[in-house]
Amino acid sequence: MVRSISLLACKTCIFILLLCFYLPFSFARDNITLNHSISDGETIISIGQIFELGFFTPGNGSNNDPRRYVGIWYKSDPKTIVWVANRDSPLNKKNGVCGIGEDGNLAIFDEHKNSVWKANVSVPPKGMVKLLDSGNLQILSNSLSVIWESFKHPTDTFLPGMKMDGNLVLKSWESNDNPAEGEFKFQLEGNQYTIRRERLIIYWQSRVSGDFMSDDILPMVSSLLSNSDRSNKTYKFGHNETTISSFSKKYRRLVMYFNGKVQYLTRLSESAPWDLTWKEPMNRCDEFKACGNSERCSNSENSNGVAKILNFKPLKVNKVGKPDEKFQVSSENDCKEECLKDCYCQAYSNETSQVRGVTSVTRNTTCWIWSNDLNNIQFEDTNGGREIHLRVQPNFSPEPKQTKQDGGPNNINNQFKQWPLAFAVTVASVLALAFAVFYIFTRKAKVKKQEAGKRVDRLRRAK
Ligand SMILES: *[C@@H]1O[C@H](CO)[C@@H](O)[C@H](O)[C@H]1NC(C)=O
Ligand SMILES: *[C@@H]1O[C@H](CO)[C@@H](O)[C@H](O)[C@H]1NC(C)=O
Ligand SMILES: *[C@@H]1O[C@H](CO)[C@@H](O)[C@H](O)[C@H]1NC(C)=O
Ligand SMILES: *[C@@H]1O[C@H](CO)[C@@H](O)[C@H](O)[C@H]1NC(C)=O
Ligand SMILES: *[C@@H]1O[C@H](CO)[C@@H](O)[C@H](O)[C@H]1NC(C)=O
Ligand SMILES: *[C@@H]1O[C@H](CO)[C@@H](O)[C@H](O)[C@H]1NC(C)=O
Ligand SMILES: *[C@@H]1O[C@H](CO)[C@@H](O)[C@H](O)[C@H]1NC(C)=O
Ligand SMILES: *[C@@H]1O[C@H](CO)[C@@H](O)[C@H](O)[C@H]1NC(C)=O
Protein backbone atom coordinates (compact mmCIF):
# COMPACT_ATOMS: atom_id res chain seq x y z
CA MET A 1 0.00 0.00 0.00
CA VAL A 2 2.64 2.44 1.14
CA ARG A 3 4.76 1.26 -1.68
CA SER A 4 2.10 1.87 -4.28
CA ILE A 5 1.38 5.33 -2.87
CA SER A 6 5.00 6.27 -3.00
CA LEU A 7 5.17 4.80 -6.50
CA LEU A 8 2.22 6.92 -7.48
CA ALA A 9 3.81 9.98 -5.89
CA CYS A 10 7.00 9.24 -7.73
CA LYS A 11 5.15 8.83 -11.03
CA THR A 12 3.31 12.08 -10.45
CA CYS A 13 6.58 13.69 -9.60
CA ILE A 14 8.18 12.49 -12.80
CA PHE A 15 5.12 13.51 -14.75
CA ILE A 16 5.27 17.02 -13.31
CA LEU A 17 8.97 17.19 -13.97
CA LEU A 18 8.49 16.10 -17.55
CA LEU A 19 5.67 18.57 -17.91
CA CYS A 20 7.92 21.32 -16.61
CA PHE A 21 10.52 20.56 -19.23
CA TYR A 22 7.97 20.01 -21.91
CA LEU A 23 5.81 23.02 -21.12
CA PRO A 24 7.88 25.81 -22.59
CA PHE A 25 8.20 23.91 -25.83
CA SER A 26 4.65 22.77 -26.31
CA PHE A 27 3.17 26.08 -25.33
CA ALA A 28 5.61 28.42 -27.02
CA ARG A 29 3.52 29.77 -29.82
CA ASP A 30 5.06 30.79 -33.08
CA ASN A 31 2.04 32.76 -34.19
CA ILE A 32 -0.26 35.65 -33.47
CA THR A 33 -3.88 35.29 -34.50
CA LEU A 34 -7.01 37.33 -34.20
CA ASN A 35 -7.75 35.62 -30.91
CA HIS A 36 -4.23 35.54 -29.64
CA SER A 37 -2.08 38.62 -29.24
CA ILE A 38 0.96 39.04 -27.03
CA SER A 39 1.34 41.49 -24.18
CA ASP A 40 4.57 42.93 -22.89
CA GLY A 41 6.38 40.09 -21.17
CA GLU A 42 5.07 37.42 -23.52
CA THR A 43 6.88 36.26 -26.62
CA ILE A 44 6.40 34.02 -29.60
CA ILE A 45 9.20 31.65 -30.62
CA SER A 46 9.92 30.18 -34.02
CA ILE A 47 9.25 26.47 -34.21
CA GLY A 48 12.92 25.45 -34.16
CA GLN A 49 13.60 27.71 -31.15
CA ILE A 50 15.85 29.97 -33.18
CA PHE A 51 14.19 33.37 -33.12
CA GLU A 52 11.97 35.06 -30.59
CA LEU A 53 9.66 38.03 -30.92
CA GLY A 54 8.55 40.20 -28.05
CA PHE A 55 8.93 43.47 -26.22
CA PHE A 56 12.35 44.74 -25.24
CA THR A 57 14.28 47.77 -24.02
CA PRO A 58 17.52 48.32 -25.92
CA GLY A 59 20.85 49.07 -24.34
CA ASN A 60 21.99 47.96 -20.93
CA GLY A 61 18.49 47.70 -19.58
CA SER A 62 18.54 50.40 -16.96
CA ASN A 63 15.39 50.11 -14.85
CA ASN A 64 14.59 53.74 -15.41
CA ASP A 65 14.53 53.37 -19.16
CA PRO A 66 10.84 53.24 -20.06
CA ARG A 67 11.19 52.65 -23.80
CA ARG A 68 9.59 49.46 -25.07
CA TYR A 69 9.99 48.18 -28.59
CA VAL A 70 8.70 45.08 -30.32
CA GLY A 71 11.52 43.23 -31.98
CA ILE A 72 12.99 39.93 -33.05
CA TRP A 73 16.17 38.47 -31.56
CA TYR A 74 18.08 35.19 -31.51
CA LYS A 75 16.63 33.02 -28.80
CA SER A 76 20.17 32.01 -27.90
CA ASP A 77 21.34 35.59 -27.89
CA PRO A 78 18.61 37.94 -26.67
CA LYS A 79 20.94 40.93 -26.84
CA THR A 80 21.22 40.77 -30.60
CA ILE A 81 18.15 42.40 -32.05
CA VAL A 82 17.68 41.66 -35.73
CA TRP A 83 14.44 43.52 -36.39
CA VAL A 84 12.45 46.28 -34.71
CA ALA A 85 8.85 47.04 -35.56
CA ASN A 86 8.19 50.39 -33.87
CA ARG A 87 11.71 51.75 -34.22
CA ASP A 88 10.59 55.36 -34.32
CA SER A 89 7.76 55.15 -31.82
CA PRO A 90 8.58 53.28 -28.61
CA LEU A 91 5.96 52.71 -25.98
CA ASN A 92 6.87 54.21 -22.64
CA LYS A 93 5.23 51.69 -20.35
CA LYS A 94 5.38 47.96 -20.02
CA ASN A 95 1.76 47.49 -20.89
CA GLY A 96 1.77 47.34 -24.66
CA VAL A 97 0.11 44.70 -26.76
CA CYS A 98 1.11 43.36 -30.14
CA GLY A 99 -1.72 41.79 -32.06
CA ILE A 100 -4.27 42.10 -34.79
CA GLY A 101 -6.49 45.12 -34.35
CA GLU A 102 -10.13 45.67 -35.17
CA ASP A 103 -9.19 46.98 -38.59
CA GLY A 104 -7.39 43.71 -39.25
CA ASN A 105 -3.94 45.27 -39.06
CA LEU A 106 -1.02 43.74 -37.27
CA ALA A 107 -0.23 46.52 -34.86
CA ILE A 108 1.35 47.53 -31.56
CA PHE A 109 -1.05 49.15 -29.12
CA ASP A 110 -0.46 51.28 -26.07
CA GLU A 111 -2.57 51.06 -22.94
CA HIS A 112 -5.27 53.18 -24.53
CA LYS A 113 -5.50 50.86 -27.50
CA ASN A 114 -3.93 53.43 -29.78
CA SER A 115 -1.62 51.89 -32.29
CA VAL A 116 1.95 53.20 -32.35
CA TRP A 117 2.91 51.04 -35.30
CA LYS A 118 1.08 48.99 -37.90
CA ALA A 119 2.10 46.81 -40.79
CA ASN A 120 -0.47 48.46 -43.07
CA VAL A 121 -1.89 45.24 -44.43
CA SER A 122 -5.10 43.65 -43.39
CA VAL A 123 -4.84 40.20 -41.89
CA PRO A 124 -7.83 38.15 -43.05
CA PRO A 125 -10.00 36.59 -40.29
CA LYS A 126 -8.42 33.19 -40.62
CA GLY A 127 -5.00 34.47 -41.48
CA MET A 128 -2.17 34.70 -39.02
CA VAL A 129 1.17 36.20 -38.20
CA LYS A 130 3.95 33.67 -37.93
CA LEU A 131 7.60 33.87 -36.87
CA LEU A 132 9.76 31.54 -38.94
CA ASP A 133 13.07 29.91 -38.10
CA SER A 134 14.75 32.21 -40.60
CA GLY A 135 13.80 35.19 -38.45
CA ASN A 136 11.16 36.24 -40.94
CA LEU A 137 7.85 37.46 -39.56
CA GLN A 138 5.16 36.70 -42.08
CA ILE A 139 1.54 37.65 -42.38
CA LEU A 140 -0.30 34.80 -44.03
CA SER A 141 -3.65 34.88 -45.74
CA ASN A 142 -6.46 32.36 -45.24
CA SER A 143 -4.84 30.23 -47.88
CA LEU A 144 -1.43 30.63 -46.22
CA SER A 145 0.06 32.78 -48.94
CA VAL A 146 2.42 35.51 -47.73
CA ILE A 147 0.89 38.97 -47.80
CA TRP A 148 3.55 40.81 -45.79
CA GLU A 149 6.94 39.86 -44.38
CA SER A 150 9.54 41.53 -42.23
CA PHE A 151 12.23 40.32 -44.64
CA LYS A 152 10.94 42.92 -47.07
CA HIS A 153 10.93 45.59 -44.35
CA PRO A 154 14.23 45.13 -42.54
CA THR A 155 15.69 47.52 -40.00
CA ASP A 156 19.48 47.40 -39.91
CA THR A 157 20.07 43.66 -40.22
CA PHE A 158 20.21 41.42 -43.24
CA LEU A 159 19.56 37.75 -42.54
CA PRO A 160 20.11 34.75 -44.80
CA GLY A 161 17.02 34.36 -46.94
CA MET A 162 16.54 38.04 -47.60
CA LYS A 163 17.46 39.32 -51.00
CA MET A 164 19.23 42.58 -51.56
CA ASP A 165 17.42 43.92 -54.58
CA GLY A 166 16.83 47.51 -55.52
CA ASN A 167 13.96 47.84 -53.06
CA LEU A 168 15.62 46.62 -49.91
CA VAL A 169 17.33 49.16 -47.68
CA LEU A 170 19.10 48.55 -44.39
CA LYS A 171 18.82 51.63 -42.21
CA SER A 172 21.17 51.95 -39.29
CA TRP A 173 20.06 52.54 -35.73
CA GLU A 174 20.58 56.05 -34.48
CA SER A 175 22.97 54.87 -31.78
CA ASN A 176 24.00 51.80 -29.89
CA ASP A 177 20.86 51.85 -27.81
CA ASN A 178 18.41 53.71 -30.00
CA PRO A 179 16.81 51.77 -32.85
CA ALA A 180 15.32 54.92 -34.40
CA GLU A 181 16.33 55.45 -37.99
CA GLY A 182 19.90 56.69 -38.02
CA GLU A 183 22.14 58.35 -40.55
CA PHE A 184 23.28 55.45 -42.69
CA LYS A 185 21.62 53.39 -45.35
CA PHE A 186 22.96 50.35 -47.11
CA GLN A 187 21.48 49.34 -50.43
CA LEU A 188 22.06 48.10 -53.92
CA GLU A 189 22.15 50.80 -56.56
CA GLY A 190 22.54 49.54 -60.06
CA ASN A 191 25.12 46.88 -59.47
CA GLN A 192 27.00 48.58 -56.66
CA TYR A 193 26.43 48.35 -52.96
CA THR A 194 26.44 51.76 -51.38
CA ILE A 195 26.34 53.26 -47.95
CA ARG A 196 24.67 56.60 -47.93
CA ARG A 197 24.77 59.06 -45.11
CA GLU A 198 21.87 61.33 -44.32
CA ARG A 199 20.53 62.88 -47.46
CA LEU A 200 22.10 61.62 -50.60
CA ILE A 201 25.78 61.78 -50.01
CA ILE A 202 27.60 58.65 -50.91
CA TYR A 203 29.67 57.51 -48.02
CA TRP A 204 31.01 54.26 -49.36
CA GLN A 205 30.51 52.46 -52.61
CA SER A 206 31.63 49.01 -53.50
CA ARG A 207 33.59 48.65 -56.67
CA VAL A 208 31.40 45.73 -57.44
CA SER A 209 30.38 45.17 -60.97
CA GLY A 210 28.82 42.45 -63.01
CA ASP A 211 28.03 39.51 -60.81
CA PHE A 212 29.22 41.03 -57.58
CA MET A 213 32.62 39.47 -57.49
CA SER A 214 35.47 41.78 -56.74
CA ASP A 215 38.14 42.39 -54.20
CA ASP A 216 36.43 44.81 -51.94
CA ILE A 217 33.35 42.80 -51.21
CA LEU A 218 33.81 39.39 -49.72
CA PRO A 219 32.33 36.76 -52.06
CA MET A 220 30.53 35.22 -49.13
CA VAL A 221 28.91 38.53 -48.44
CA SER A 222 27.81 39.17 -51.98
CA SER A 223 26.50 35.66 -52.20
CA LEU A 224 24.53 36.23 -49.00
CA LEU A 225 23.19 39.54 -50.26
CA SER A 226 22.14 38.21 -53.62
CA ASN A 227 20.60 35.16 -51.96
CA SER A 228 22.60 32.79 -54.12
CA ASP A 229 23.96 30.74 -51.25
CA ARG A 230 23.15 27.50 -52.93
CA SER A 231 26.10 27.89 -55.23
CA ASN A 232 28.76 25.35 -54.44
CA LYS A 233 31.74 27.65 -54.61
CA THR A 234 34.47 27.39 -52.05
CA TYR A 235 35.70 30.58 -50.51
CA LYS A 236 38.75 31.41 -48.55
CA PHE A 237 37.73 32.21 -45.02
CA GLY A 238 40.62 33.04 -42.77
CA HIS A 239 43.16 30.35 -43.57
CA ASN A 240 40.58 27.76 -44.51
CA GLU A 241 38.68 27.03 -47.64
CA THR A 242 35.04 26.59 -46.96
CA THR A 243 31.71 26.53 -48.71
CA ILE A 244 28.89 28.87 -47.93
CA SER A 245 26.66 26.01 -46.94
CA SER A 246 29.01 24.99 -44.16
CA PHE A 247 27.85 28.07 -42.31
CA SER A 248 24.42 27.52 -40.97
CA LYS A 249 21.89 30.23 -41.53
CA LYS A 250 21.70 30.71 -37.80
CA TYR A 251 25.22 31.91 -37.72
CA ARG A 252 25.43 34.72 -40.20
CA ARG A 253 24.13 38.24 -40.47
CA LEU A 254 25.04 41.56 -42.02
CA VAL A 255 24.39 44.78 -40.16
CA MET A 256 24.43 48.44 -41.17
CA TYR A 257 25.78 49.92 -37.95
CA PHE A 258 25.03 53.35 -36.59
CA ASN A 259 28.71 54.26 -36.97
CA GLY A 260 28.53 53.96 -40.73
CA LYS A 261 30.10 50.55 -41.09
CA VAL A 262 28.42 47.63 -42.70
CA GLN A 263 29.60 44.48 -40.96
CA TYR A 264 29.32 40.81 -41.75
CA LEU A 265 29.28 38.69 -38.63
CA THR A 266 29.54 34.95 -38.23
CA ARG A 267 29.67 32.52 -35.37
CA LEU A 268 30.69 28.91 -35.21
CA SER A 269 27.91 27.69 -32.97
CA GLU A 270 24.85 28.89 -31.20
CA SER A 271 26.77 29.65 -28.02
CA ALA A 272 29.86 31.08 -29.70
CA PRO A 273 30.43 34.81 -29.78
CA TRP A 274 29.91 36.69 -33.01
CA ASP A 275 33.05 37.23 -35.07
CA LEU A 276 33.52 40.17 -37.32
CA THR A 277 34.42 38.61 -40.66
CA TRP A 278 34.25 41.59 -42.96
CA LYS A 279 33.44 45.27 -42.80
CA GLU A 280 33.40 48.33 -45.01
CA PRO A 281 34.62 51.00 -45.10
CA MET A 282 37.89 49.60 -43.79
CA ASN A 283 40.27 52.38 -44.59
CA ARG A 284 40.49 54.84 -41.74
CA CYS A 285 40.24 57.61 -44.27
CA ASP A 286 36.86 56.33 -45.34
CA GLU A 287 35.55 56.53 -41.85
CA PHE A 288 32.85 58.99 -41.12
CA LYS A 289 34.46 60.24 -37.93
CA ALA A 290 37.95 60.44 -39.41
CA CYS A 291 36.90 63.21 -41.72
CA GLY A 292 34.04 64.77 -39.92
CA ASN A 293 33.18 68.42 -40.00
CA SER A 294 35.66 70.64 -41.73
CA GLU A 295 38.27 68.01 -42.21
CA ARG A 296 39.45 66.14 -45.16
CA CYS A 297 41.07 62.85 -44.49
CA SER A 298 44.12 61.52 -46.16
CA ASN A 299 46.13 58.43 -45.42
CA SER A 300 49.43 60.20 -45.75
CA GLU A 301 49.14 63.82 -44.67
CA ASN A 302 50.17 64.27 -41.07
CA SER A 303 50.44 62.13 -37.97
CA ASN A 304 46.74 61.67 -37.32
CA GLY A 305 46.00 61.31 -41.00
CA VAL A 306 43.67 64.26 -41.13
CA ALA A 307 44.26 67.44 -43.04
CA LYS A 308 41.96 70.36 -42.61
CA ILE A 309 40.42 71.78 -45.70
CA LEU A 310 38.12 74.56 -44.70
CA ASN A 311 38.55 76.91 -47.57
CA PHE A 312 36.40 77.36 -50.58
CA LYS A 313 37.20 79.34 -53.64
CA PRO A 314 34.29 80.66 -55.68
CA LEU A 315 34.66 80.25 -59.42
CA LYS A 316 32.44 81.06 -62.31
CA VAL A 317 32.19 78.16 -64.67
CA ASN A 318 30.00 77.77 -67.66
CA LYS A 319 30.11 74.05 -67.93
CA VAL A 320 30.58 71.48 -65.24
CA GLY A 321 30.40 67.73 -65.11
CA LYS A 322 27.29 66.17 -63.72
CA PRO A 323 27.12 66.74 -59.97
CA ASP A 324 27.09 63.66 -57.80
CA GLU A 325 24.34 64.87 -55.56
CA LYS A 326 21.50 67.32 -55.68
CA PHE A 327 19.14 68.09 -52.83
CA GLN A 328 17.21 70.82 -51.06
CA VAL A 329 18.75 72.70 -48.17
CA SER A 330 17.58 75.67 -46.17
CA SER A 331 20.53 77.94 -46.89
CA GLU A 332 23.78 78.21 -48.76
CA ASN A 333 25.58 77.54 -45.53
CA ASP A 334 23.89 74.16 -45.17
CA CYS A 335 25.09 73.31 -48.64
CA LYS A 336 28.63 74.20 -47.63
CA GLU A 337 28.30 72.18 -44.44
CA GLU A 338 27.19 69.15 -46.40
CA CYS A 339 30.24 69.49 -48.57
CA LEU A 340 32.51 69.79 -45.55
CA LYS A 341 31.01 66.67 -44.03
CA ASP A 342 31.68 64.63 -47.11
CA CYS A 343 35.23 63.33 -47.26
CA TYR A 344 35.22 63.38 -51.00
CA CYS A 345 33.38 66.59 -51.68
CA GLN A 346 35.41 68.73 -54.03
CA ALA A 347 32.97 71.47 -54.78
CA TYR A 348 29.45 72.67 -54.14
CA SER A 349 27.09 75.04 -55.81
CA ASN A 350 23.83 76.52 -54.60
CA GLU A 351 20.91 78.05 -56.33
CA THR A 352 18.54 80.08 -54.28
CA SER A 353 15.16 80.91 -55.63
CA GLN A 354 12.21 82.62 -54.03
CA VAL A 355 8.98 80.75 -53.94
CA ARG A 356 5.99 83.06 -53.61
CA GLY A 357 3.23 81.65 -51.50
CA VAL A 358 -0.12 83.32 -50.86
CA THR A 359 1.00 85.12 -47.73
CA SER A 360 4.74 84.73 -47.66
CA VAL A 361 7.86 84.31 -49.69
CA THR A 362 9.98 81.28 -48.97
CA ARG A 363 13.48 80.77 -50.14
CA ASN A 364 14.25 77.53 -51.84
CA THR A 365 17.89 76.53 -52.01
CA THR A 366 19.09 73.68 -54.15
CA CYS A 367 22.49 72.26 -53.33
CA TRP A 368 24.76 70.44 -55.78
CA ILE A 369 27.77 68.48 -54.69
CA TRP A 370 30.67 67.15 -56.74
CA SER A 371 32.42 64.33 -54.98
CA ASN A 372 34.26 62.44 -57.62
CA ASP A 373 35.29 64.14 -60.73
CA LEU A 374 35.58 67.73 -61.75
CA ASN A 375 36.92 66.62 -65.07
CA ASN A 376 34.42 68.38 -67.20
CA ILE A 377 34.66 71.83 -65.76
CA GLN A 378 35.12 74.57 -68.29
CA PHE A 379 35.89 78.10 -67.32
CA GLU A 380 34.85 81.31 -68.76
CA ASP A 381 35.53 84.62 -67.15
CA THR A 382 32.66 86.19 -68.96
CA ASN A 383 29.29 86.72 -67.39
CA GLY A 384 26.72 84.02 -67.17
CA GLY A 385 27.80 80.63 -66.04
CA ARG A 386 27.31 79.02 -62.72
CA GLU A 387 29.13 79.82 -59.54
CA ILE A 388 30.70 76.84 -57.89
CA HIS A 389 32.69 76.76 -54.69
CA LEU A 390 35.83 74.76 -55.05
CA ARG A 391 37.34 73.20 -51.97
CA VAL A 392 40.97 74.27 -51.74
CA GLN A 393 43.74 73.49 -49.33
CA PRO A 394 45.07 76.63 -47.62
CA ASN A 395 48.80 75.85 -47.81
CA PHE A 396 49.12 73.15 -50.34
CA SER A 397 52.69 71.89 -50.36
CA PRO A 398 53.25 68.30 -51.35
CA GLU A 399 55.99 67.02 -49.06
CA PRO A 400 58.03 63.92 -49.70
CA LYS A 401 56.86 61.08 -47.51
CA GLN A 402 59.01 59.72 -44.73
CA THR A 403 58.41 56.47 -42.90
CA LYS A 404 55.25 54.41 -42.89
CA GLN A 405 52.87 54.28 -39.97
CA ASP A 406 52.82 50.66 -38.92
CA GLY A 407 55.24 47.91 -39.69
CA GLY A 408 58.07 50.33 -40.33
CA PRO A 409 61.65 49.20 -39.71
CA ASN A 410 61.85 50.93 -36.32
CA ASN A 411 59.05 48.92 -34.80
CA ILE A 412 60.47 45.72 -36.06
CA ASN A 413 63.94 46.41 -34.71
CA ASN A 414 62.52 47.07 -31.29
CA GLN A 415 60.50 43.95 -31.29
CA PHE A 416 63.32 41.69 -32.26
CA LYS A 417 66.00 43.35 -30.11
CA GLN A 418 66.90 40.27 -28.10
CA TRP A 419 67.49 38.08 -31.14
CA PRO A 420 71.01 37.14 -32.14
CA LEU A 421 72.43 40.05 -34.04
CA ALA A 422 73.23 38.23 -37.27
CA PHE A 423 69.75 36.79 -37.53
CA ALA A 424 68.20 40.13 -36.73
CA VAL A 425 70.24 41.81 -39.44
CA THR A 426 69.12 39.23 -41.97
CA VAL A 427 65.49 39.63 -40.99
CA ALA A 428 65.81 43.39 -41.04
CA SER A 429 67.31 43.47 -44.50
CA VAL A 430 64.64 41.15 -45.90
CA LEU A 431 62.03 43.36 -44.33
CA ALA A 432 63.72 46.47 -45.61
CA LEU A 433 63.62 45.05 -49.10
CA ALA A 434 59.96 44.13 -48.71
CA PHE A 435 59.31 47.56 -47.34
CA ALA A 436 61.03 49.20 -50.30
CA VAL A 437 58.90 47.21 -52.73
CA PHE A 438 55.80 48.05 -50.78
CA TYR A 439 56.82 51.71 -50.75
CA ILE A 440 57.30 51.83 -54.49
CA PHE A 441 53.92 50.28 -55.03
CA THR A 442 52.12 52.65 -52.70
CA ARG A 443 53.93 55.55 -54.40
CA LYS A 444 52.52 54.44 -57.69
CA ALA A 445 49.04 54.24 -56.24
CA LYS A 446 49.50 57.65 -54.69
CA VAL A 447 50.55 59.26 -57.92
CA LYS A 448 47.24 58.17 -59.37
CA LYS A 449 45.39 59.64 -56.43
CA GLN A 450 47.26 62.89 -56.74
CA GLU A 451 46.07 63.39 -60.26
CA ALA A 452 42.71 64.47 -58.91
CA GLY A 453 44.49 66.95 -56.65
CA LYS A 454 46.51 68.29 -59.56
CA ARG A 455 43.36 68.86 -61.49
CA VAL A 456 42.17 71.08 -58.69
CA ASP A 457 45.51 72.86 -58.82
CA ARG A 458 45.21 73.42 -62.52
CA LEU A 459 41.83 74.91 -61.99
CA ARG A 460 43.23 77.41 -59.56
CA ARG A 461 46.00 78.38 -61.86
CA ALA A 462 43.55 78.77 -64.68
CA LYS A 463 41.79 81.34 -62.56
C1 LIG B 1 -0.23 28.77 -33.31
O1 LIG B 1 0.68 28.17 -32.39
C2 LIG B 1 0.06 27.24 -31.52
C3 LIG B 1 1.09 26.80 -30.52
O2 LIG B 1 2.24 26.38 -31.16
C4 LIG B 1 -0.47 26.08 -32.32
O3 LIG B 1 -1.11 25.16 -31.46
C5 LIG B 1 -1.48 26.61 -33.33
O4 LIG B 1 -1.92 25.58 -34.15
C6 LIG B 1 -0.87 27.68 -34.17
N1 LIG B 1 -1.89 28.29 -34.97
C7 LIG B 1 -1.88 28.20 -36.26
C8 LIG B 1 -3.02 28.85 -36.95
O5 LIG B 1 -0.98 27.64 -36.87
C1 LIG C 1 -11.74 33.50 -32.33
O1 LIG C 1 -12.77 34.00 -31.50
C2 LIG C 1 -14.01 34.04 -32.13
C3 LIG C 1 -15.00 34.75 -31.20
O2 LIG C 1 -14.66 34.50 -29.86
C4 LIG C 1 -14.46 32.61 -32.42
O3 LIG C 1 -15.69 32.63 -33.07
C5 LIG C 1 -13.42 31.99 -33.34
O4 LIG C 1 -13.73 30.62 -33.55
C6 LIG C 1 -12.04 32.07 -32.74
N1 LIG C 1 -11.10 31.63 -33.70
C7 LIG C 1 -10.16 30.76 -33.42
C8 LIG C 1 -9.25 30.38 -34.54
O5 LIG C 1 -10.04 30.26 -32.32
C1 LIG D 1 26.67 48.95 -21.66
O1 LIG D 1 27.64 48.76 -20.66
C2 LIG D 1 28.95 48.56 -21.17
C3 LIG D 1 29.87 48.24 -20.02
O2 LIG D 1 29.46 48.89 -18.85
C4 LIG D 1 29.37 49.80 -21.94
O3 LIG D 1 30.66 49.63 -22.48
C5 LIG D 1 28.41 50.04 -23.07
O4 LIG D 1 28.73 51.21 -23.76
C6 LIG D 1 27.00 50.13 -22.54
N1 LIG D 1 26.09 50.20 -23.65
C7 LIG D 1 25.15 51.10 -23.75
C8 LIG D 1 24.31 51.01 -24.93
O5 LIG D 1 24.96 51.97 -22.91
C1 LIG E 1 2.17 52.41 -42.44
O1 LIG E 1 1.71 53.60 -42.99
C2 LIG E 1 2.10 54.75 -42.27
C3 LIG E 1 1.41 55.95 -42.88
O2 LIG E 1 1.55 55.95 -44.26
C4 LIG E 1 3.62 54.88 -42.31
O3 LIG E 1 4.03 56.00 -41.59
C5 LIG E 1 4.22 53.63 -41.71
O4 LIG E 1 5.63 53.70 -41.83
C6 LIG E 1 3.70 52.40 -42.41
N1 LIG E 1 4.17 51.24 -41.70
C7 LIG E 1 4.97 50.33 -42.26
C8 LIG E 1 5.36 49.20 -41.41
O5 LIG E 1 5.34 50.42 -43.42
C1 LIG F 1 29.03 20.49 -54.36
O1 LIG F 1 30.35 19.98 -54.27
C2 LIG F 1 30.40 18.67 -53.76
C3 LIG F 1 31.86 18.27 -53.59
O2 LIG F 1 32.66 18.83 -54.56
C4 LIG F 1 29.66 17.71 -54.71
O3 LIG F 1 29.69 16.41 -54.21
C5 LIG F 1 28.22 18.18 -54.83
O4 LIG F 1 27.55 17.40 -55.77
C6 LIG F 1 28.17 19.65 -55.26
N1 LIG F 1 26.80 20.10 -55.21
C7 LIG F 1 26.25 20.81 -56.19
C8 LIG F 1 24.85 21.25 -55.97
O5 LIG F 1 26.87 21.13 -57.18
C1 LIG G 1 40.54 26.23 -39.86
O1 LIG G 1 41.19 24.99 -39.82
C2 LIG G 1 41.75 24.68 -38.57
C3 LIG G 1 42.50 23.37 -38.67
O2 LIG G 1 42.09 22.64 -39.76
C4 LIG G 1 40.64 24.60 -37.53
O3 LIG G 1 41.16 24.32 -36.27
C5 LIG G 1 39.92 25.95 -37.50
O4 LIG G 1 38.82 25.88 -36.60
C6 LIG G 1 39.42 26.32 -38.86
N1 LIG G 1 38.86 27.65 -38.82
C7 LIG G 1 37.68 27.93 -39.35
C8 LIG G 1 37.25 29.35 -39.24
O5 LIG G 1 37.00 27.11 -39.91
C1 LIG H 1 23.77 81.01 -53.23
O1 LIG H 1 23.44 81.48 -51.92
C2 LIG H 1 23.85 82.83 -51.69
C3 LIG H 1 23.53 83.15 -50.26
O2 LIG H 1 22.22 82.75 -49.90
C4 LIG H 1 23.13 83.77 -52.66
O3 LIG H 1 23.58 85.08 -52.46
C5 LIG H 1 23.43 83.34 -54.08
O4 LIG H 1 22.71 84.13 -54.97
C6 LIG H 1 23.09 81.88 -54.28
N1 LIG H 1 23.50 81.47 -55.60
C7 LIG H 1 22.64 81.26 -56.57
C8 LIG H 1 23.20 80.88 -57.89
O5 LIG H 1 21.45 81.36 -56.41
C1 LIG I 1 12.71 74.09 -54.97
O1 LIG I 1 13.31 74.08 -56.24
C2 LIG I 1 13.43 72.80 -56.84
C3 LIG I 1 14.21 72.95 -58.13
O2 LIG I 1 14.00 74.17 -58.70
C4 LIG I 1 12.05 72.22 -57.04
O3 LIG I 1 12.17 70.92 -57.63
C5 LIG I 1 11.36 72.13 -55.71
O4 LIG I 1 10.05 71.64 -55.87
C6 LIG I 1 11.32 73.49 -55.03
N1 LIG I 1 10.79 73.34 -53.70
C7 LIG I 1 9.81 74.11 -53.25
C8 LIG I 1 9.41 73.87 -51.83
O5 LIG I 1 9.28 74.93 -53.93
Give a verbal description of the structure.
Helix content is 20%, strand content 35%. The protein has 463 residues and is an alpha+beta fold. It folds into four domains: 31-151, Agglutinin, subunit A, CATH 2.90.10; 157-282; 291-392, 3-Layer(bba) Sandwich (Hepatocyte Growth Factor), CATH 3.50.4; 409-462, no CATH class. Strand 8 and strand 9 form a beta hairpin. It is globular, with a radius of gyration of 29 Å. Residues 17-25, 207-215, 235-241, 243-247, 284-308 and 395-425 have low confidence and may be disordered. The chain binds 2-acetamido-2-deoxy-beta-D-glucopyranose (8 copies). Residues 237-240 line the site of one 2-acetamido-2-deoxy-beta-D-glucopyranose. InterPro entries: Bulb-type_lectin_dom, Bulb-type_lectin_dom_sf, Pan_app, S_locus_glycoprot_dom. Residues 297-393 form the Apple domain. Residues 1-28 form the signal peptide.
